[in-house]
Amino acid sequence: MEAAEDDERPLLTHQFLPQQEEEGSRYTSDGTVDSNKQPALKQSTGNWRACFFILAAEFSECLCFSAVARNLVTYLTTVLHERNVDAARNVSAWVGTCFFTPLVGAFLADTYWGRYSTIIVFLSVYVVGMLITTVSATLPLFLPSSDSGGIHRVAVYLGLYLAALGTGGIKSCSSALGADQFDGADPGERVAKGSFFNWYYFSINIGSLLSTTVLVWVQDNIGWSVGFAIPTVLMVFGLAVFVAGGKVYRYKRTSGSPFTRVFQVVVAAARNYRLELPDDTSALHENEGAAGHTSEFSFFDKAAVVLPSSEKKGPWRLCTVSQVEELKMLLRMAPVWASLLIFFAVTAQMSSTLVEQALHHGI
Questions:
Q1: d(CA 363, CA 355)
Q2: How far is CA 66 from CA 138, 180, 310, in A?
């Protein structure tokens, strides 16, 4: 009888199981690592201890961006003496560039550098751009009037577009890096992640409020050099704070850009356009079931048609059904994005033509 009980007795008794679970719970379960490329410890990395550094950098960037964008048309018309139409067009082009460069930053972060390195590189470019912009505001004081026009204009636009390039790194990566600091498998950290995004957008709005009120007043009443120098100093501070948190961040390994996956589907579908779709969708490449496949935009399903064994295969010739569905989701969202063009075309006037109207009426 005792022998039978010994055979049924587990190798690990229950007293060792809590210790094993506790050992596993010390580390994050989402694959994040620490600054030494080791599995991230929950007690010493991530969570709010890391997010304060990220929020400080985001606050500095938003305050700096808004300080330039909200009053740039005034600077172009009163200092560079551009016509209203030209100034409004140049402001819109610069703001549009600021919201296009995050595509570049996101691609580099996902494919090559990672989010932390991308933010550092782009923030450094941002700081250089703001330094040039600040110095350019003082050029008319040191150069003869006959020489300052061309040099001044070149310096202004060089600084502005370096700053536009720099903003592409933090706008695309800061919120994602903040989300990486919370383990989605941990209920407590999952709740904290939602709270982080509340504070994230709060910091954006507070930065925008302070720049639109205080810094714009400084630019109009004290001077442009001071008005640009303040956000520049804050950007340097934000960069320093962000770098200081490097030891406590959690990092996700690069896994390739979603843009690459989408383009692979387009290319593979175009190359396979002569192939016939199977009647049974389960025959598609790595189809996990009918629930994961949709019938819309069926042309792109040809990217997942299994090729004959004699055909050369590769990610640009054969894609999974999940990749195809990712593209389809983007296409279904396209009408929503298209409708937002009108909205943003109107709101873009707040920092250009509406400001010019106020200047015209002496407001």
A1: 9
A2: 21, 26, 58
Q: What is the pLDDT of residues 302-350, one digit of tens each?
A: 888 887 775 677 888 888 888 899 999 999 999 998 998 888 888 888 7
3 state DSSP class of 13: coil
Quick check: 23 and 12 in contact, CB under 8 A? no
Segment holding 247, helix H or strand E = none
DSSP state of 11: S
CA distances from 199 to 54, 58, 344 (A): 11, 11, 24
DSSP 249-293: --BPPP---HHHHHHHHHHHHHHTTTSPPPSSGGGSTT---GGG-
The DSSP annotation for 83-141 comes to -HHHHHHHHHHHHHHHHHHHHHHHHHIIIII-HHHHHHHHHHHHHHHHHHHHHHHHHHH
pTM for this model (two decimals): 0.83
C-alpha–C-alpha distance, residues 203 and 123, integer Å: 17
d(CA 99, CA 212): 19
- Give Cβ neighbours of residue 201 (< 8 Å, ≥ 6 apart): none
Over residues 42-97, the pLDDT tens digits come to: 989 999 999 999 999 999 999 999 999 989 999 999 888 889 889 989 999 999 99
